Amino acid sequence: MRGRGRLLVSPAVALLLVSSILPLVATIWFSLIDYRLLVPGTGRFVGLANYVHLLTDPSFGPTLVNTLLLIGMVLVVSIVGGLGMALLLERVVLGRGVLRLLVISPFFVMPPVSALLWKNLLMQPVAGFFAWVSSLFGLRAFDWFARAPLASIGLIVSWQWLPFACLILLTSLQSFDREQREAAQLDGASAFVIFRQLVIPHLARPIAIVVMMETIFLLSLFAEIFVTTGGGRGSSNLAFLVYSQAMVRYDVGAASAAGIVAVVFANVLAFFLVRAVGRSLDA
Amino acid sequence: MSSIILEGVTKRFGTHLASDHVDLVIPDGKFTVFVGPSGCGKTTLLRLIAGLEDIDDGLLLIDGIDMARTQPADRGLAMVFQSYALYPHMSVRSNLGFALMVARRPKAEIAERVDRVAAMLDLSRLLDRKPAALSGGQRQRVAIGRALVRQPKAFLFDEPLSNLDAALRAQMRFEIRRLQQDLGITAVYVTHDQAEAMTMADQIVVFRDGRVEQVGAPLEIYRNPVNDFVAGFIGSPRMNFLSGRYAAAYGVPTIGIRPEHLDIAPLGKWQALVLTVENLGSEAFVHAELEDGKAITVRCAAAASIRAGSRISFTPSDTCVHRFDADGRAIAGTDANFMLESANAP
Amino acid sequence: MHRGRLSTIGAGAGAWLAAIAIAFPLLWALLTSFKTELEAAAYPPSFVNFSWTLDNYRAALGGGEYFAALWNSLLIAGGSSALALLVAVPAAWAMAFAPTRRTRGLLLWMLSTKMLPPVGVLIPIYLFYRDWNLLDTVSGVAILLAAGNLPIAVWMLFSNFKEVPAEILEAARMDGALLLQELGLVLAPMALPGLASTFFLIFTLAWNESFWTLNLTSTDAAPLTAFIAAFSSPQGLFWAQLSAVSMLSVAPVLAIGWLCQRQLVRGLTFGAVK
Asked: What ipTM was reported for this prediction?
């Protein structure tokens, strides 16, 4: 039975090794050489020069900060909004199916579609919907992408991930033991107290899961930036930086170094997250 | 005719010794019950016989053939699982016929055998239902039917009644036993319920920590337990174990006396203070505290109306006192003979 | 639970308002897709009073480009999901029913590969694909997406298989079933819902995947994600058309998502939240 088990697992392991570990090693190698596709004759070993160049570049720090800011913003907005939505949804009995469809819809929209719809139909300062709404209040239209590109992107991505947080928190809320709540009510606890002392701890685990899952996906946020700002005006994150180094400037060495930095960054973040989230994830 | 013989059978899970050099003969055509507390290895042994686990050491012989390399299906045994393990996506008919279908028997033969077993177990009306639409008792009968259809050399039962309510359990006990007797098939039955063991078995095997403590007919084990563990496990309510001056009177460190062998009478040998009385209507059990502070249970008639807080005195019938040495082993030649036996003696 | 009629009605109304607000961008795009381009860009925007037209949909479905992209999306999402399942099912079976001491570690390792940002491997893969003519091919992208979704597929299948009571499989074994019969006649029918929802989940993830599909395709293998991304540098008015194309791209996956909500939640959280 054991030998057979190993045989059955090997295709999966092989595919993962070849598609992730192997290329990763290659990236590490590339990061240590000076290799620019547009300049012939490059390809010599330069050690850590690429890294030095990257880390001393004035735009690197802000890029790193942007990455964190984006993740942070999306986490906060999606979880808080998702929790609020979940609390509301929990009490609804009629039309639950349609409500759920409406609420989960953003999650299933392709990132390019989301980004373009928001940028053009909603946020466009001349004829967009938000412009019209602000005119109703007598305010001038806010030029989202000119004045706050990073926040605009963050808003779009938060919108996409809110349903995810909402679904998970809703599922967890629904599994909250009724009898516990009734016992607390009999003990004279107000709704607010019940929420703070009983519900929030119960939600700690799913919130941790949401944080972990979203962070994993948000580290590689790419399409929305690509499609809206092209990384301009301080809206670039690590993933986009790698992309622009590789596909725009064709500097393989620099891009690889940035890629490795992104990987290290992801691991550091994951380490702290796993430590904070730790036992909750034990399946 | 089908014999199952185990010699020195041993099984380990990691460092845990689940079966410890078990020697056992399962008599042909008889109802053998494996009984013991949780974790004693009785289910493990059943699964070893079935072939669902591999033996680490020792021999398992069925009809004289070593089963070490034989797959479960080829051993000619059928098993009824605790959770019934019915195939949820198949009808009762398909469930019953599954083994035959896998063995590529002709359709006519499968239909005939399935119908016959269904009639035997009163399942004919339910043949087209799925397991989810059946009650617990019905599912259990389907599980038994599935085993029957294969016409096995022996039946293996893994605590099949533990998921049923008390009334159903009693009824199914009787039905399973009757079925086995009518068909004359060897049966090995695992349970943790000593009452089930006592009422169903031709032969009881008492297990503890992977070892066989005692093998024998129910009454034999009841009357002559080989040690205090078996004595305390068989019989409900549990046997009373007394030490101190009570045991000293019989010249041993520990004595055992069953609640039903204590007669309450004025001027009895021992005194106790009544704590609570359990009155079942047919009989009553008095839980009392002896003078040395130990607890004792005494059976009496329901009408005796003994009150909590009162004092009682009672006498053990001397022929039923079990004596145990310092290691818990029963001392042979006890006077634990029933009236019946002494009545037959010259 | 007695929480008061009024508060329940309030919560209900609030929920509906919030839900419509959340879905609003899509609802607005849906509306816009039926307008002419002039009316789509009109200010103030019209809600009902405009000439409804299906021109945008006709244009999208009429031109070859949309269908080519749709076809690519189907091939890539379907192909990568099929491949992922093909590899994941045996692995999950082995882990669920023949576990060893290494099984847990293996599972965690698979999950950890998901933590690797794709940017970390973009360059070698791009160069490798370029040198081996895999750029702008459906199979090239499909293989990568399969590998990306593999950990999720294995996890979902693993937790699905774990829910099949081992006793039923043992009963099948005692009834004489060989391994293939055990898998095909007993396990597969019982695990079918789990298999289906796993497929739908990874299909959805592959359908929406926007990193590899944008970077590794240009014309031949461009799926809907790339097709729509091209709208980011358009000429002239295009909102109505964008809306129509967006609706067409989103509808199939939205339908799937609605049907399989619960399984999707479980899959995305690796079964940790039921």
From this structure: 0.81
